[in-house]
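Lecture 7, part B: from sequences to assemblies.

Below are the input chains for today's worked example.
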Amino acid sequence: MTGTRASGANPLIEFKAVHKSFFVRGQQFDVVRALDLAVAPGEFLCIVGPSGSGKSTLLNMVAGLGPPSTGAVSYGGRPVSEVNTEVAYLTQHDTLLPWRTVADNVGVPLELRGMAAATRRPLVQAAIDAIGLAGFEGHYPRQLSGGMRKRAMLARTLIQDPQAILMDEPFGPLDAQLKLMLQAELMALWARSRKTIMFVTHDIVEAITLADRVVVLSARPARVNLIETIAIPRPRDVHRTRFAPEFETHYERIWAAMELGALAQVPA
Amino acid sequence: MSATGLRSEEALEQGVAMPRPASRGEGRVLLLRTVTLVVALALWQALSGNLVDPFWISSPLAVGAKLWLWISTGVLFRHLLVTIEETAVGFIVGGVCGVVLGGLVAQSRILQRTIDPFVTAVYGIPKVALAPLFIMWFGIGLMPKFVLAGISVFFLVFFNTLAGAREVDSSMVDALRMMGARPAQIHRIVILPASFPFIFLGFKLGLPYGFVGAVAGEMMASNEGIGFLTQNSAGQYDTAGVFAALTALMTVTVLLDAGLARLERWVFRWR
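Predicted structure of the full complex, as structure tokens:
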């Protein structure tokens, strides 16, 4: 399996020989080592791997929030050298502004573009309706549950209408039913818009359900253990993908690649 | 989407979001406070003239009469207005300087560390000790009181603004930067509102200090204001006058405090 997608298009996001180390009290920690990866335009790419394997670090590099120590990360053919405003980034941090209501939080990206409040309103309402937060427009983040805050952040991400979206375990804290609903919503959105999505998750079922390709990272320092192209035909029904005949094989291969990573950590 | 799942979750959240019931015993506390006040005043009245010479402690009735005289002749409001004006000017000028300078210094870690010992040293001086100097410089008019009130407010607002600007969650700033926010927008949308609780705290702590500064300035040298009224009454051995002026001072501080508390609840309704 090659790092570049078979479609032949120039990759939108590309990692070349990427190393990343952190220094903690003078001691060097390698988080990513010699990693190559390419994401095609319009691709839905999921990244799975043991916790602490540097999945978020990869997204941060694309976002321009933490450059690689050596090697190069490029976006649209140009190296990422500063904050990348072409992509939207749904982080694990709660970055809603606590002094703003849900509606005012979701509208921030439009406000930054100088859109008038009256023009924003219907767009904000549509985004809030789409993620199932209707009725909570006037609530402050403090008044919402963790899952609802996450959904508000998702609405704020989608309203940006970016070229590419980076998502760091966006559905992690949600209950199973809500998770499926939002997965379906995200898939429909992606099918309509063909945005490029890099989606980090620890949930293998979720990765297989959503992705064109699933990248399995090793334990730290992260390398690519496996790139699994998901053969389940689209359009997919999030409730039914796990019963697709291909599912079992994908799951087993990914699971095996994950275990390898976890075991490799032990002797070191 | 499953309607039932969402509806039950929403119902739960609505419950969480509902305002807390008003704390019980509110009425009883109010009653107890009133009783305490009445008993204290009655005790004072009973002591006066029976155990202690009214020359030293006056009496609530004499103080009330004095207050009424001052109110009816307009004396109280004339002097009160002067003190309030001094406090307000000092509060606004000192506070604005505090926010602006605090915000500017917060931009540079090096600058902050350089000036830190000097600012702390000046802050440590009791502001009242500066009054003679300001009277020397600015005479006995309103100016030295503006300066004294202003400098008292300035330091509290300055330090709190500085602290607030440093406390801003960097992940929120990063999120805004990724949405394409320019530095000015980041300041307006994240940094200013995030440090606002701190700035507000500075103003809240600063207000009574500004008031104290103004009154202290008046007591040193002036011919108007509540501080003057107190000093002047004491100069004439008018104990009731001193207590009446103190009562007026007390009333103003209590009202200011209550007003600020209400404002705070409204401004920070998102917390």
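Note for the exam: Chain B touches chain A through 30 residues (CB under 8 Å). Keep this in mind when comparing with the next example.
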